[in-house]
Amino acid sequence: MPYLNLWEFTFFLSIVSIAFGLWLYRAGCMERKKR
Amino acid sequence: MPWIIVFIYSWIIFFLFVDVSRLNKTVYGGIIAFVLGSSVDWAGHQLQLYSFHDNVINWAGNSIFYVSGPLFTMGTIFFQHISLDRRLQAGNIAAFTAAYFAVELLLVSAGGASYLHWHYLASLALDIIVFTSLSYVGEIIVYGRKKIENSR
User: Do B111 and A1 form a contact (C-beta atoms < 8 A)?
Assistant: First the structure.
C-alpha cells in the first residue's frame, strides 16, 4: 500500500532534486576551476 | 502518475545543467543507462523481484517515462560530470547513487513500484556498482584512453 500521496511525493522529490542540483552546481564549479 | 512527475523533474534538471557543446559524447551515457536500465528492470519484472504500477505507457515491463526520464537524463549528466580527479569522482558516484536511490525509495513509497522478492539494500548495492562501472566506461568515452593515461 502506498503511504505517500502525490503531493507528499512531489514535495520530497523537490527536496531530493534541489540537493542533487546543488551538488551538480558545486561539482561543475570545481571542475571548471581545475581546467 | 508518479512516473510522469519524476519524468518532468529529471528533464528540468537536465535542461538546467546540460552542456550542449559536449552532448555528442555525453549522450552515450544516457543511451547506456537507457539500455542497461531497460534490460535489468525487464529481467527484475520477469523474475518477479519487483513490479511496476500506473506505467501509463509500457516499455519492457516498466514505464517509458522512467526509462526516458531519470535513466536517460541521469546517464547523460553523469557522463558530463565525470572527473579525472579521483576524489571528485568518488563524490559524484556518491551523489548520483544517493539521488537515484532516493527517487527509487520515493517511487516505492508512492505506489509506483513495489518490492516482491527484493530489498532496499540490494538496490543500493546495485546503484553503487552501476555508477562505479559507468565512471570507468565514461572516462574512456568522454576523455579517451590517451588523456586518462597521461593524467595518472
Answer: yes
- What would the mean pLDDT of B54-65 be, rounded to a whole number? 86
Do the Cβ atoms of B44 and B50 come closer than 8 Å? yes
- Interface list for B 84-123 with A (CB within 8 A): 85, 88, 91-92, 95, 98-99, 102-103, 106, 109-111
**Amino acid residing at B42:** W
pTM of the shown model: 0.91
Supply φ then ψ for residue B114, to 5 degrees. Answer: -140, 145
Structure ipTM: 0.90
Cβ neighbours of residue B26 under 8 Å, at least 6 residues apart? B19, B76, B77, B79, B80, B142
Write phi, then psi, for B54 (nearest 5 degrees): 50, 45
